[in-house]
Every structure is written in C-alpha cells, then in structure tokens.
Amino acid sequence: MTVAALLLVSGAAVLHTGWNALVKRAGDPVLFLWWVGVVASVLYAPIALWVLAREGFRPVALPFVIGTVILHALYFFSLGRAYAAGDFSLVYPIARGLGVALVPLAALAIFDERLSPLGTLGVALVAAGILGLHWRPRAWTAAALRRSGTGWAIATGVVIAAYSLLDRAGVARISPLAYIWL
C-alpha cells in the first residue's frame, strides 16, 4: 500500500468515526441522520445531475436504486436507534464491524467471491474483536440487547452488509456517482 493510499484510508476512518460521534451526540440521532442525508443530497445534486445528463439513467438500475434507498433508510433508522440506546464504544464497533464481517460470507454465497487466506484472517479478527471487546456475562440476553443498543447495532450491521452487496450490483448498472446520489 502506498503512503497516499494509507493516508486516504486513515483520513476516511477518522472522518467516518467523527460523523458517527456527532450522530451519537445529537439530541435525536434519527432526525440528525435524516438532515445529514438531505443536506448531502442537495450539495451533491449538481454533480449527480451532470453525470445523469451525460450518461443517462438505465432503467435496469431502478430496482437497485429503490432497494438501496429502502436499505439506507433502515440503516439510518437502526443506527440512530442504536446510538439513542447504547454507548458509542459499544454500538459503533458492532455496527461497523459486523457489516465488514458479513459481506464476505454473503459474497461467497451470492457471487461466489472468495477471500484470500489473509482476508479470511482479517474478517475472523474483526469478528473476534467485536465479541472480545464486548463479552461479559449476560451481555447477549434479550434485555441486555435492548438496554445497551446492541440489538439495534446488530440490525445496523446486517443492513450495512445488505446494502453493500446490493450496491455492488447496482453500480454495475449505472454510474457510481449517479447511484450514490439517487
């Protein structure tokens, strides 16, 4: 990995963690996420509309666009509920790490994509880290899941995996720049 790539990935991780921390601090995380989506869509509209005008919209992309809109709405709702119910240090690693761990498993089943041994080790370490970081007696009971936000964090991770897989197929049918905005 080049230094530039490492800096870009590290910067993206810091920005991602930062906006999630802002969501956690918001009085109403679901409402905050909704407004972030509205503002981002308005700011991104000129680029997306230019791409759509230049490249057009392929109708075959419509089911993927509709699916990702639904999944992202569920994502924002479940993430907001998770942050409203639980600690950032518990919710964030579960929500983000579970999605990372589930995508390769589902991609194997759906797309017949296989990880390298090193990639498999990485996913296993992410899963072990999530469990190890939060493992304590009775932490995974139904009452504890509701009280800690863990249940919503798990739901968020599952939705992240779902939209990641759907988006893989969606961007094959329309420009990623237009797809993100739509």
List keywords for this structure.
mainly alpha; 182 residues; 8 helices
Structure description:
The protein is an all-alpha fold. It has one domain. Helix content is 82%, strand content 0%. It has helices spanning 3-25, 29-55, 62-85, 88-111, 117-134, 142-148, 150-170, 176-181. Helix 3 runs antiparallel to helix 7 (150-170) and helix 4 packs antiparallel against helix 5. The two termini are 32 Å apart.
| Proportion of helical residues | over 70%
Largest sheet: none
The rough form would be described as: globular
How many alpha or pi helices? 8
Q: Taking Cα atoms only, what radius of gyration do you get, to the nearest Å?
A: 18 Å
Instruction: Report how far the terminal alpha carbons are from each other.
Output: 32 Å
Instruction: Tell me the structural class.
Output: mainly alpha
Mean model confidence by pLDDT: 88
Number of strands: 0
H/E series: HHHHHHHH
The percent range for strand residues is under 5%
List the domain count as a whole number. 1
* Uncertain stretches: none
Topology:
Elements: H1 3-25, H2 29-55, H3 62-85, H4 88-111, H5 117-134, H6 142-148, H7 150-170, H8 176-181
Helix pairs in contact: 2-3, 3-7, 4-5, 4-7
Outline:
The chain is an all-alpha fold and 182 residues long. It is 82% helix and 0% strand.
